[in-house]
Amino acid sequence: xxxxxxxxxxxxxxxxxxxxxxxxxxxxxxxxxxxxxxxxxxxxxxxxxxxxxxxxxxxxxxxxxxxxxxxxxxxxxxxxxxxxxxxxxxxxxxxxxxxxxxxxxxxx
Length: 108
Fold this sequence. Notes:
Largest sheet: none
Distance between the termini: 55 Å
Subcellular location: Membrane
Structural class: mainly alpha
Transmembrane segments: 12-30, 50-68, 80-104
Low-confidence stretches: none
GO molecular function, one term: ATPase-coupled intramembrane lipid transporter activity
GO cellular component, one term: plasma membrane
Protein name: P-type ATPase C-terminal domain-containing protein
Strand content: under 5%
Oligomer: single chain
């Protein structure tokens, strides 16, 4: 299959490119609709782009990892570690960062 260029044809590349554009448009539109008025914090300030970007990164990561899981035909232990593990590491990082960051005068 690889010798016959079935995987690396221009048509396949364009299909993947259009699929990526489609997913990015869907994620952007839903993110924009959900965060349209921005998040109002307890002190009356708005959360801003940092909060929006962090909240949108989880669905982006889930989309990429889900697509990687769907196109994987043979799951090995490395796939099982890497694909769900990446999402788990993200959630652990967010929990730790959300706890530690307010204790450090890192950002306003």
